[in-house]
């Protein structure tokens, strides 16, 4: 009988000095207890290079994070998560052929509302301008986000957690912990970094108790807790989530 080949070691290529989009992938691998490697800057530059045409099976990639897993090279955060979650048992009941699509819907919604939209609060004109060149627009955008979008997305996830399909316990889907819970946790962690006062107000309101219960439950999972306390967990900086105190306003304050 021939020995089974060892499974590949996932390599995350996201060489940024802050958690960023790569963090969702790290959290999944940490929770799964799967050893992984961080790619280097030259590897990143080579993959992202305009000269790179991919290879016989892999298309060229556009923007990080990138994942290498054996011969496979992937991009797009939710796409990588979907792949890894199925590999490592974090994609719900494997007997339910539709679970991954529901989970993907939840992950995409969390990323829309608490990642892309939060980034756009400090860069509403786009990434080609410094924050200092768009401070006025950032304030307008942040007020609108905090007044309308943040409660809308928090309310949506509260509804998901109240709904029958979430099952028993603190998780989003079918009573089982999945990668969608990790995505929502990381999205809220980043949003809390950018808007600590607004998130505190939301928590104190009591309107989203199930959402914050899930957040705390993820944070307390043994492997996640150990990771968050380790030096592998980077500090927030100039990434998607940036803390500019002047943007963390109470939109009900008028003026
Ligand atoms: N939808 C993509 C977005 C990827 C993305 O925007 N990556 C950033 C770094 S976090 C980047 O380098 N973007 C370069 C660009 O958009 O030109 C994902 O979720 O992975």
Automatic annotation (TrEMBL):
Q: Which InterPro entries match?
A: Glutathione-S-Trfase_C-like, Glutathione-S-Trfase_C_sf, Glutathione_S-Trfase_N, GST_C, GST_superfamily, Thioredoxin-like_sf
Single annotated GO MF: glutathione transferase activity
Domain GST N-terminal residues, every copy: 9-92
The UniProt entry's GO biological process terms, in alphabetical order, are:
glutathione metabolic process
CDD domains assigned to the protein according to its UniProt record, in alphabetical order:
GST_C_Sigma_like
User: Which parts of the sequence belong to the GST C-terminal domain?
Assistant: 96-247
Superkingdom as given in the UniProt entry: Eukaryota
Alphabetized Gene3D superfamilies for the sequence: 1.20.1050.10, Glutaredoxin
The record's annotation in SUPFAM superfamilies points to: GST C-terminal domain-like, Thioredoxin-like
Cleaved signal peptide residues: none
Q: What is the name of the protein in this document? A: Glutathione S-transferase
Species of origin reads Zasmidium cellare ATCC 36951
């Amino acid at each position: 009988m021939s020995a089974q080949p060892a499974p590949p070691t996932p390599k995350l290529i996201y060489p940024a000095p802050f958690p960023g989009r790569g963090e969702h992938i790290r959290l999944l691998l940490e929770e799964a207890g799967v050893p992984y490697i961080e790619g280097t800057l030259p590897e990143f530059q080579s993959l992202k290079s305009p000269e790179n045409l991919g290879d016989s099976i892999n298309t060229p990639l556009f923007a990080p994070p990138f994942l290498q897993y054996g011969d496979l090279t992937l991009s797009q955060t939710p796409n990588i998560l979907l792949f890894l979650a199925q590999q490592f048992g974090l994609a719900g009941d494997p007997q339910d052929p539709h679970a991954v699509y529901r989970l993907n819907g939840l992950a995409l919604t969390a990323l829309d509302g608490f990642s892309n939209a939060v980034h756009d609060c400090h860069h509403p004109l786009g990434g080609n301008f410094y924050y200092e060149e768009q401070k006025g627009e950032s304030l307008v955008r942040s007020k609108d986000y905090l007044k309308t979008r943040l409660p809308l997305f928090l309310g949506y996830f509260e509804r998901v957690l109240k709904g029958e399909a979430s099952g028993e316990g603190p998780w989003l889907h079918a009573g089982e912990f999945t990668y969608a819970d990790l995505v929502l946790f990381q999205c809220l962690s980043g949003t809390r970094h950018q808007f600590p006062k607004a998130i505190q107000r939301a928590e104190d309101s009591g309107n989203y108790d199930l959402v914050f219960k899930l957040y705390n439950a993820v944070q307390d999972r043994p492997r996640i807790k150990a990771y968050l306390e380790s030096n592998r967990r980077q500090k927030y900086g100039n990434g998607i989530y940036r803390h500019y105190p002047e943007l963390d306003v109470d939109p009900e304050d008028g003026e």
